[in-house]
Recover the amino acids of this structure.
């Protein structure tokens, strides 16, 4: 192997974006990962055309001037760290190590944004879990205290407190099993039974199960089935649960007199079947749309409490996070579209069987 070939494959083997520049900042070499930072990078381009961040460029200047290896990072605290950068003069003429003897400088850049984002998501997750557990636990404690006072004197009052405690405990155990389930799906430990399932059959099953809830809330529930005879490759129990959560949400956020449609259609070119749940409800603001699939994310806690359905108040904010994981595990994806005051549509795809 020639040194040139060895050098190029060494560059490719480094798991960081790397540029090799000269004194005048002209780029002589770069690896594939470096192209991710700037797609239009090419040999001979100046580094200050490739990278915009002045702090990185400053570090490179300093290293060129001093002939010393330097490293730096953006931001002061850990939380706003976006990158780490390492500038290394490459000893070209080994005998004479004056600053001028270095003709090339390697600039390696480590992207920290993803790591920082993950760490902060982790922190939010723990904070959310604690909050979600503490609220009902506090209620249970207060209810139990009041129950203690009422138990001998007012039997009827005591009975209502027992019922309230049961509701909170039911909510808590639902929450704990949702958290467990989410972590099981995320770590790939959820047993899935993939079989051919009729698209229409799935929709009709969910329709039948959700009709009583829709009627109770005076929301019209309809189906819209196109090419429903197609078979999709799915775990029917899990996909039914995804659809049920979507319909449940749709009913929850649609005022009486509104309409919810559960439907399916074909996406022939991609060999995928679409499933959608459309409502004429309150809608979701554009800036909230990307966030609703996050664990525990609820747009307006007060509002979902007021729209109370089922035990324990307005839900845990885990339903869509679970839905996204389940659909992903099937090789599909889920998206939401919405207009405030007009309604929302949630669509997910499943591969045809
Ligand atoms: N159809 C919809 N219309 C308007 N807002 C919605 C709709 N579906 C979801 N949302 C918003 O997204 C949030 C997250 O939904 P998600 O299903 O994850 O949680 P949840 O319904 O609050 O609780 P859970 O499903 O765990 O009982 C909801 O709290 C609500 O703010
Ligand atoms: Mg939900």
């Amino acid at each position: 192997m020639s040194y040139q070939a060895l050098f190029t494959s060494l560059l490719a083997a480094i798991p960081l974006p790397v540029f090799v520049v000269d004194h005048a900042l002209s780029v002589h070499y770069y690896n594939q990962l470096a192209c991710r930072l700037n797609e239009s990078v090419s040999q001979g381009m100046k580094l200050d055309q490739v990278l915009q961040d002045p702090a990185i460029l400053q570090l490179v200047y300093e290293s060129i001037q001093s002939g010393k290896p330097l490293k730096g990072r953006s931001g002061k605290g850990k939380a706003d760290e976006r990158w780490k950068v390492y500038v290394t003069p490459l000893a070209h003429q080994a005998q004479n190590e004056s600053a001028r003897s270095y003709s090339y400088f390697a600039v390696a850049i480590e992207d920290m944004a993803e790591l920082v984002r993950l760490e902060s998501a982790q922190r939010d997750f723990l904070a959310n879990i604690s909050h979600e557990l503490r609220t009902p636990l506090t209620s249970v404690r207060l209810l139990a205290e009041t129950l203690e006072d009422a138990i001998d004197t007012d039997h009827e009052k005591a009975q209502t407190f027992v019922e309230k405690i049961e509701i909170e405990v039911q909510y808590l155990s639902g929450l704990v099993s949702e958290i467990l389930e989410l972590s099981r799906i995320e770590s790939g430990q959820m047993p899935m039974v993939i079989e051919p399932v009729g698209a229409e059959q799935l929709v009709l099953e969910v329709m039948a199960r959700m009709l009583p809830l829709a009627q109770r809330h005076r929301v019209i529930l309809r189906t819209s089935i196109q090419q429903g005879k197609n078979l999709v490759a799915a775990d029917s129990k899990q996909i039914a649960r995804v659809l049920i959560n979507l319909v449940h949400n749709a009913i929850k956020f649609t005022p009486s007199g509104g309409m919810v449609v559960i439907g399916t259609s074909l996406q022939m070119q991609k060999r995928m079947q679409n499933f959608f749940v459309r409502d004429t409800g309150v809608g979701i603001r554009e800036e909230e749309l990307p966030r609703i699939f996050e664990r525990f994310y609820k747009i307006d806690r007060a509002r979902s409490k007021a729209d109370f359905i089922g035990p324990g108040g307005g839900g845990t904010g885990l339903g869509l996070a679970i839905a996204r994981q389940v659909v992903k595990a099937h090789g599909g994806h889920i998206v939401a579209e919405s207009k405030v005051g007009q309604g929302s549509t949630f669509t997910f795809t499943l591969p045809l069987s």
